[in-house]
Amino acid sequence: MITILDYGAGNLQSVKNTLAAIGVEYEQVRDANSLRRATKIILPGVGHFGQIMRALDTLGVREALIERIGAGVPFLGICLGLQALFTSSEKSLRSSLLSKARPCHPVADPALMTNSAARPL
Predict the structure, then answer these.
(1) CATH number of the domain enclosing 100
(2) pLDDT for res 13
(3) Any idea which of 11-15, 18-22, 70-74, 101-105 has the lowest mean pLDDT?
(4) Please, is 107 exposed, middle or buried when counting C-beta atoms within 10 Å of its C-beta (0-12, 13-18, 19+)?
(5) 99 or 72, greater pLDDT
(6) CA 72 → CA 9, 54, 112, 115, 116, distances in Å?
(7) Phi, psi of 18 (to 5 degrees)
(8) How far apart are CA 120 and CA 13, in angstroms?
(9) What is the domain extent for residue 78?
(10) What b-and-e string marks burial along 23-56, b requiring 16 or more CB atoms within 10 Å of the CB?
(11) Number of domains present in the structure of the chain
(12) Distance CA 29, CA 38 (A)
C-alpha cells in the first residue's frame, strides 16, 4: 500500500484520483507513527519551502520521513515534495530542509527530458 503524507497543503486530490484510477490502494496519513509503518511514500507539495517545512514540523513528521527515506523506502516527492529533499532553497534560505547528509541540488540532464530516455518504473 502507498502512503500519502498529508501536511495540509499540496495537490492531494489529484494524487488520490490518479491512484484510484489505476486501482492502487493508498492511505492518507498526518502523523509520525503511521509514516513509520509506510512501505512506499508520496509527498505531494504546493507552495513555499518554508511553509512545507513548518507544516512537517508542526505535524511532527520530519524525522520520521527522514528515517523512512534513509531506510530505503521508495519515495515520490511531487513538485515541492521533491524539492523538500534539497539541503537549501534560494526561496527560503532560513529553512532547514530534509536532506542532512550532503547537498542535494537539481541537475538537468537533457537526455532524461526526451521520450527516448523514458522508461517504465
Answers:
(1) 3.40.50.880
(2) 93
(3) 101-105
(4) exposed
(5) 72
(6) 25, 24, 23, 28, 28
(7) -65, -45
(8) 24
(9) 2-117
(10) eeebeebeebeebbebeebbbbbeeebbbbbebb
(11) 1
(12) 10
